[in-house]
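Dear colleague,

Thank you for sharing your sequence with our group. We've completed the structure prediction you requested, and as agreed, I am returning the results in plain text so they can be pasted directly into your records. Please verify that the sequence below matches your submission; if there's any discrepancy, let me know and we will rerun it promptly.
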Amino acid sequence: MRGCSRESSRVRARSLAVALSSLALSSLALCCALSSPARASEVPAPVLDGVEQRVREKLVAAQRLVEARRDDPAAWGAYGMVLDAHRQTGRAEIAYREARRLDPDDFRWTYHLAGLLDYKDPEEAAELFEDAVAIDPDYGPARVRYGETLEKLGRLDAAEEQFRSATRLTPDDPLAWFGLGRSALARGELEAALEQLERSYTIDPGVQAITATLSRALFRAGEADRARELARRARSLPRMTHHSDPRRAAVRDLAVDSESYLQRSRTYQEVGALDRARSELETLARLEPDRADVHLAMAGLYDRMRQPAEAVAAARRALAADAELPGARAVLAGALLKLGRFEEARSEAERVLVAEPENFHMLLVSAMAGAQAGDIGVAVQRVDRAFEARTGDPELRDLLRRMLVDFGESFLAVGRREEGLERLERALELDRESGLSSPSTRELERRIRELRSG
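Please find the predicted structure tokens below.
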């Protein structure tokens, strides 16, 4: 019995020794784990099916760099930016998170992750924006984006604080003042709201949201005439609101797919950066010289840049690539008119009108070209049709108004009183539809009253 006890004691001793040894090994492993850097995450593979070859090459190059340098936050962050630029947002999120884990003090990875999550998860985005502005408190566009996210979450006082900081850091950013204007409107402080919205509009009158909001505030303040004028203008402006944010724009500029070149060009045009818009289209045209839509986009841009000869050449390249490309002949007709090549302009406009008899722009081009060629009868007919098919575009409506007034006065000058009055009254109708009450409108009203009473 005593022998059994000694044997049991030896077994228990061996078991205790094994347990202590295992505990020591476990402690050692824990210490090593705590003292060694965590292994980087697995690199997410990009989606390559259906992507353009140059996109594939850019994605694969960024992926390989990360695989070769898995502990490098800059490699992870750069991979995230390339994925983000090409709209592979789920994979971009993984890459940004890993870059941020490896270097939490780098503003870029926190900020890009916040921008990526802004619509998907505004609560987390707000936390990330808060971290980002703590890292770089002097970057104004981050304050604007942070304020907008807080506004979406209903945290209006905190949002206003960010907008106010942004106005100090970047006083020429219209969206910072716009945010303050919205905050004042939400509190019912109409005078302050008008002051901030007017400042925002003065900086950039081409932002639809700013113009429309100022219009609503003016209606509330009883300034109906100007409110209607701005409401009319807002309807013709692009709906997108673009942030002046170079750091986030650096992501967008990495994209090399065809649609991104076109989208960047449209964005640059909307903010008035026409040379940069042209550069994007010229790059795409070199990469894909047979794209008719790219040449058409270039023709439209050249026309806007008041380079009609270049617009004609680009429109002809578009038609050479696709003779039935919608819109190409219309751009060509307008550019030819500006070059004074009236017969060619009218010919192209009439070809468009065969398929699109109510095309407002082409009716005006045909009318102007006909008038220059001395064919007044056709010109008047086209202007009358344009009046019936009138558009909401304020510049084209103004052109139609001036033509109606000119034709009206011409008819009056040769004694065709009723025909002249009819055109003047149509011009006045355009003003009233647009809510205008300008000196020229009042002069037109006076002129019509005088003719009617005489």
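Summary note from our side: The chain has a mean pLDDT of 89.

Kind regards,
the structure core
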